[in-house]
Amino acid sequence: MLSKRIIPCLDIKDGRTVKGINFVNIRDAGDPVELASTYAQQGADELVFLDISATNEKRKTFASLVKEIARNINIPFTVGGGINSTADVAPLLEAGADKVSVNSAAVRNPALVDELAKAFGSQCIVAAIDARYVNEQWIVHTHGGKQPSDKELFSWAQECENRGAGEILFTSMDHDGTKNGFATSALASLHEQLTIPVIASGGAGTVKHFLDVFSIGKADAALAASIFHFGEIRIPELKKYLAQHTIPVRI
């Protein structure tokens, strides 16, 4: 069985790492380069860097910051935010990113997923999906969770896979920052439906939540931010706990 991955997420705004609750109430969480280096040393399997204001500010992700982070880590690194075309991706890969994440632009123009997968390979393309449970449906949102779309989580995730995405990063907006646990039921449904890996995001608060997301939610990877940024859970202890509960992890 493949090892389950633990992935700290660096949400970047104005060059700083930030964290909110339910996509609002943003607060500072530290220097992204220092945090990235610390997580690599602690045994994180990958990192995700999301420039959360790039889309709303209609600008590109900061390639210079990507380059600085890449110089300080030795683990795979996914970058997202403001990617609207194949031309936006090459500078990020050249700066040191291993994968790119697309969200709002893909919802607006689904063919972008095909174009990116064809140009750079499916292994390089992560389809990030932010969704909120509304009227018994998981509704996909864009622009940092600010705008509801006409897409529904499961059909959109399947479409992204069909178009060539190599992974799905699903963030439950209802669970984000609450520390009450991941959306395990929705994640289990995604696992049943898809053949590509699913990264769970939103709701991590305890080591038990990680055990649940892997055993009940069947996620391939679990992403978290504030619990790592503010030292509430350390990655070595988390992995030791998971290994003791028969979850395969790299230690």
What's the mean pLDDT score?
89
* Rg from alpha-carbon coordinates: 16 Å
Helix-strand sequence: EEEHEHEHEHHEEEHEHEHEHH
CATH class: Alpha Beta
Q: Summarize the biggest pleated sheet.
A: 8 strands, parallel, barrel
Beta strands, count: 12
Strand content: 25-35%
Q: Any low-confidence stretches, pLDDT <50, length ≥5? A: 19-29, 55-59
* Distance separating the two termini: 15 Å
CATH architecture: Alpha-Beta Barrel
CATH superfamily, by name, is Aldolase class I
Strand ordering within the main sheet: 1-4-5-6-7-10-11-12
Q: What is the helical fraction, as a range of percent?
A: 25-40%
CATH topology: TIM Barrel
Overall, the morphology is globular
Q: By helix and strand content, what is the structural category?
A: alpha/beta
What is the total number of structural domains? Answer: 1
Count of DSSP H/I helices:
10
Quick synopsis:
The protein has ten helices and twelve strands. It is α/β, with parallel strands linked by helices and 251 residues long.
Layout of strands and helices, then pairs:
Blueprint: E1 5-13, E2 16-21, E3 24-30, H1 32-42, E4 47-51, H2 63-71, E5 77-80, H3 86-95, E6 99-102, H4 104-108, H5 111-120, E7 125-134, E8 137-142, E9 147-152, H6 153-163, E10 167-172, H7 184-193, E11 198-201, H8 207-215, E12 221-224, H9 226-229, H10 235-244
Parallel strand pairs: 1-4, 1-12, 4-5, 5-6, 6-7, 7-10, 10-11, 11-12
Antiparallel strand pairs: 1-2, 2-3, 7-8, 8-9
Helix pairs in contact: 2-3
Question: Descriptors for this entry?
Answer:
251 residues; alpha/beta; TIM Barrel; 8-stranded parallel beta barrel; 12 strands; globular
